[in-house]
């Protein structure tokens, strides 16, 4: 589903991704860990067309990110084509970014109706079902300000799922939450994983990564330091840098 080969990205002179190799098979959960500034968010943003890759090769579901292939030739995607591709990728951020003036239900309904062309009645029915799935069936009429951070984050997940993505990206989805609210969000993600969703999750929740991750990738300073079975990478890391990081977050 995601295939990165020597992916590079720089901002001016600052090399942020220095040749990232990473593979996420369909249905797998890949957990991305590493210190602040190591390039995790930038990498997710590249997958989701929010940043342009400067070098290497990055494909999502076989399609080269940013390009359309015609015969042997590559054409840069137009804005409309980028938007089209992005619909297949759901993204959940640390900050929930819900529309404050819309209820939970309206937040979930918005994209399918406005962008997806889904008939309103169908979209509302689906949104109600999704809110139920994330444990918020009884909060549909609440505005974001009336919900806890954990509830808002679950609405954000429901909203991303409403576009029926084939890939979900999570960027530290629980980092901004009070500790007692983290569990409910992780439970929703755990269920999503069990249902077969392909996910790339940037997280410092080592327990989640070990239990739910099919692979764990430890990044530092724009390179993959160590990757593989989460039990190995997070339990018996080979690299000193990985060990040093884990001893800080555990
Ligand atoms: P992480 O998510 O692992 O904390 P980021 O991908 O957010 O790391 O950032 C990696 C590096 O890239 C940091 O040094 C950050 O300051 C820099 N960076 C990120 N986005 C930009 C940008 N738009 N312009 C310039 N520098 C950026
Ligand atoms: Mg980040």
TrEMBL record:
SUPFAM superfamilies: P-loop containing nucleoside triphosphate hydrolases (SSF52540). Residues 2-246 form the ABC transporter domain. The keyword Nucleotide-binding applies. Coiled coil: none annotated. InterPro entries: AAA+_ATPase, ABC_ATPase_HisP-typ, ABC_transporter-like_ATP-bd, ABC_transporter-like_CS, MetN_ABC_transporter-like, P-loop_NTPase. SMART domains: AAA (SM00382). It is a peripheral membrane protein. Keywords: Amino-acid transport, ATP-binding, Cell membrane, Membrane, Nucleotide-binding, Transport. One of its GO terms (molecular function) is ATP binding. It is found in: Cell membrane. Belongs to the ABC transporter superfamily. This is Amino acid ABC transporter ATP-binding protein.
């Amino acid at each position: 589903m995601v295939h990165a080969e020597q992916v590079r990205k720089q901002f001016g002179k600052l090399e942020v991704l220095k040749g990232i190799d990473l593979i996420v098979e369909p249905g797998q959960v890949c957990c991305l860990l590493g210190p602040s500034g190591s390039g995790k968010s930038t990498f997710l943003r590249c997958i989701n067309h929010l940043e342009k890759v400067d070098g290497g090769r990055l494909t999502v579901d076989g399609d080269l990110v940013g390009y359309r292939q015609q015969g042997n030739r590559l054409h840069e995607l137009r804005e409309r084509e980028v938007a089209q591709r992005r619909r297949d990728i759901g993204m959940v951020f640390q900050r929930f970014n819900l529309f404050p003036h819309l209820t939970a239900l309206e937040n979930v309904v918005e994209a399918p109706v406005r962008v997806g062309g889904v008939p309103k009645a169908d979209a509302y029915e689906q949104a109600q079902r999704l809110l139920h799935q994330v444990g918020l069936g009884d909060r549909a009429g609440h505005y974001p300000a009336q919900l806890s951070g954990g509830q808002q984050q679950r609405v954000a997940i429901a909203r991303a799922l409403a576009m029926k993505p084939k890939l979900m990206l999570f960027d530290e989805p629980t980092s901004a939450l009070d500790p007692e609210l983290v569990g409910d969000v992780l439970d929703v993600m755990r269920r999503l994983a069990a249902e077969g969703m392909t996910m790339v999750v940037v997280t410092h929740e080592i327990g989640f990564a070990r239990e739910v991750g099919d692979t764990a990738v430890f990044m530092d300073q724009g390179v993959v330091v160590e990757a593989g079975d989460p039990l190995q990478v997070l339990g018996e890391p080979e690299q000193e840098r990985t060990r040093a990081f884990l001893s800080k977050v555990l």
